[in-house]
């Protein structure tokens, strides 16, 4: 089988190759931690809090109120923790830029 060579005969083939090489070697800070904090942490935290509050409220509330109350409590805890994590990250980032 013959491979297609789309750059054959193109007058700008050398420019494309150089640009793609530069894009492939582009450096920058890793965003893995930020992605985990932004997407995975809130989901895991909410599910864990919902399970915990559901378990704690199982015998203490009527069945019809158990899930909505657990949901609101889990949402509150998740929101609070994520706000605290956001403030901590901003403070840490600011200290990294301006060390005293």
Overview of this structure, please?
The protein is built from 3 helices and no strands. It has a domain at about 30-95. The protein has helices at about 15-25, 30-55, 65-95. α2 packs antiparallel against α3. The longest helix has about 35 residues, at about 65-95. The chain starts with 12 loop residues before the first helix and ends with a helix. It has about 100 residues and is mostly helical. It is elongated, with a radius of gyration of 25 Å.
The largest sheet is: none
Oligomer: single chain
Order of helices and strands: HHH
- Extract low-pLDDT stretches: none
Q: What gyration radius follows from the Cα positions, in whole Å?
A: 25 Å
> Could you tell me the number of beta strands?
0
* SS element count, helices: 3
Helix vs. strand class: mainly alpha
Overall 3D form: elongated
